[in-house]
C-alpha cells in the first residue's frame, strides 16, 4: 500500500460502490452474444429510445461542443418554469437527479445525523448517507408501499432528510396524495423531505400528487425529477429539483460551475416540447404492464401492481432466475440487495421485448421444474 491508500480518510475505504445494471455490450461480450440480440430490461430505461425532438436538437448542437455550457441553464429553467408553473429561482438542474441526491447529502448530512427512508427504497439514498458518514434509518414498508406513519415515527432529533420515492423504485408503488400532504405538514422542524418523482410523468395526470404545491407553499421540500425515464435521456445525465428558493440557493453553493453539459441542456429543452413522445411512452408502459400482469397471473407468479415502468415479480430465487434469463439473452435486475431475494425487477419494454422476456422466463421456470 502507498500513500494513495494510507492517506485516504479511513471511512472512504469502507464505502461500497453502486452496482449498476450492466451495459448490454459487457454482458454480450462475456456470454459471446451479439449485443443486438440482447434485451435489457434492467435499468428502467425508455424502450422507445430518446425523444425524437431531443435527438434532432442534439444533432444540431454537436458542432458546438467546443464551447462550455450555460452554467445557469437559463433557457431550460425558463421552459421548465413555464411548464411547471414555478419561478426560475425554484429550479435547480443537476447531472442526473442522482447528483442532486448527493448534493443534498453534502448540504444536510454529516457524522451524527441521519436520513430516513424505506427498507426497499432506492439504494442511492443509503449510499449517500454513508458518503457523508451519516446514519440511514430504514423503515419497513407496508404492502410494498411507504409506511408514512412509521416513517414519521422513525424521525429522530438527528434526522435531516426523509426520502420518499413516488412512485417508488424497486416496488413501483405510490403513496396516497392526501397522506403525503399530511406527512409533510407533520414533519418536525429539523427534517427536510425529498420527494423523488423519477417516474411521475408515467402516471396519468389526474393521479399525480401536487407536490409542487408544497414547494409553492414554502414547505421544507425538494421535489426531484429526471429526464432519464419518460423522456428517454438516461445517457445524458440530467435531472432537476423543484424547491423553495432558499433550497435552490444552497444547492447552487455546492455544485460544480458546469454540472449540466450543453448537449443535455439542449436535449432536455427539446424533450420538454415533446408531449407526443411522453404520451407514447405512457401508453407503451400501460400496455406493457397490463400484458405482464396477465402473463404473471397465468404463470401463477405474485407481482406488485406498478405505477412506474417496471414490475417486481416473485419468481423465487431471484439471483438464479436473473442469471438463467441472462443466459437466454434477457437482462433483468435481481433485488436481493433490497432484501427481496425471491423477486426480480423487470422493466417494461416494447411488446416484442416483453414477449421475449415472458418466453424466456417460462423456459427458466420450466427448466427449474419447481413452483416459486
Ligand atoms: C431512475 C431513478 C432516478 C433517476 O436518476 P437520474 O440520475 O436522474 O438518472 C432517480 N430516482 C429513482 C428512484 C430512480 O429510480
Can you give a write-up of this model?
α4 (52-61) runs antiparallel to α12, α5 (74-84) packs parallel to α12 and α6 (96-108) runs parallel beside α7. This protein has 372 residues and is α/β, with parallel strands linked by helices. The strands form 3 sheets. Strands 2-8-7-6-5-3-4 form a 7-stranded mixed beta sheet, sandwiched between helices. It is globular and about 55 Å long. It contains 15 helices and 13 strands. α9 (177-185) links the parallel β5 and β6. The protein binds pyridoxal-5'-phosphate.
Features:
372 residues; globular; binds pyridoxal-5'-phosphate
Small molecules held by this entry = pyridoxal-5'-phosphate
The oligomeric state of the chains shown is: single chain
Mean pLDDT: 95
Contiguous runs where pLDDT drops below 50 for at least 5 residues: none
Strand order of the largest sheet: 2-8-7-6-5-3-4
Gyration radius over CA: 21 Å
Give the overall shape, derived from the CA principal axes: globular
Coarse structural class: alpha/beta
Mind describing the biggest β-sheet?
Answer: 7 strands, mixed
Distance between the termini: 47 Å
SS element count, helices: 15
The topology string of helices and strands comes to HHHEHHEHEHEHEHEHEEHHHEEHEEEH
The share of residues in extended strands comes to 5-15%
Helix content: 40-55%
Amino acid at each position: 500500500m502507498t500513500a494513495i491508500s494510507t492517506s485516504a480518510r479511513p471511512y472512504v475505504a469502507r464505502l461500497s460502490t453502486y452496482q449498476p445494471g450492466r451495459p448490454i455490450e459487457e454482458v454480450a461480450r462475456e456470454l459471446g452474444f451479439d449485443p443486438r440480440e440482447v434485451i435489457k430490461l434492467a435499468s428502467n430505461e425508455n424502450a422507445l429510445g430518446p425523444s425524437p425532438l431531443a435527438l434532432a436538437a442534439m444533432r444540431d448542437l454537436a458542432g458546438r461542443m467546443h464551447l462550455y455550457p450555460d452554467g445557469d441553464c437559463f433557457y431550460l429553467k425558463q421552459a421548465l418554469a413555464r411548464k411547471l408553473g414555478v419561478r426560475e429561482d425554484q429550479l435547480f438542474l443537476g447531472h442526473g437527479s442522482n447528483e442532486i441526491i448527493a448534493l443534498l447529502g453534502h448540504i444536510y448530512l454529516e457524522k451524527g445525523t441521519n436520513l430516513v427512508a424505506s427498507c426497499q427504497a432506492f439504494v442511492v439514498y443509503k449510499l449517500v448517507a454513508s458518503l457523508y458518514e451519516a446514519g440511514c434509518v430504514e423503515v419497513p414498508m407496508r404492502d410494498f408501499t411507504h409506511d408514512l406513519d412509521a416513517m414519521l415515527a422513525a424521525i429522530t432529533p438527528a434526522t435531516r432528510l426523509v426520502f420518499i420515492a413516488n412512485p417508488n423504485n424497486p416496488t413501483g408503488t405510490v403513496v396516497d396524495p392526501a397522506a403525503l400532504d399530511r406527512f409533510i405538514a407533520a414533519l418536525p422542524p429539523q427534517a427536510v423531505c425529498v420527494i423523488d418523482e423519477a417516474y411521475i410523468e408515467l402516471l396519468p395526470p389526474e393521479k399525480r400528487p401536487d407536490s409542487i404545491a408544497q414547494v409553492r407553499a414554502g414547505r421544507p421540500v425538494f421535489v426531484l425529477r429526471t429526464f432519464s425515464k419518460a423522456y428517454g435521456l438516461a445517457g445524458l445525465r440530467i435531472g432537476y429539483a423543484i424547491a423553495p428558493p432558499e433550497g435552490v440557493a444552497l444547492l447552487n453553493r455546492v455544485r460544480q460551475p458546469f454540472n449540466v453539459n450543453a448537449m443535455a441542456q439542449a436535449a432536455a429543452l427539446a424533450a420538454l416540447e415533446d408531449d407526443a413522445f411522453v404520451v407514447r411512452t405512457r401508453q407503451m408502459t400501460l400496455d406493457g404492464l397490463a400484458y405482464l400482469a396477465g402473463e404473471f397471473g397465468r404463470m401463477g407468479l405474485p407481482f406488485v401492481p406498478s405505477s412506474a415502468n417496471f414490475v417486481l415479480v416473485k419468481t423465487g430465487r431471484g439471483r438464479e432466475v436473473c442469471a438463467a434469463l441472462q443466459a437466454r439473452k434477457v437482462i433483468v435486475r435481481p433485488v436481493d440487495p433490497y432484501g427481496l431475494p425471491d423477486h426480480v425487477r423487470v422493466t417494461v419494454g416494447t411488446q416484442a421485448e416483453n414477449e421475449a422476456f415472458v418466453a424466456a422466463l417460462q423456459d427458466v421456470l420450466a427448466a427449474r421444474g419447481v413452483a416459486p
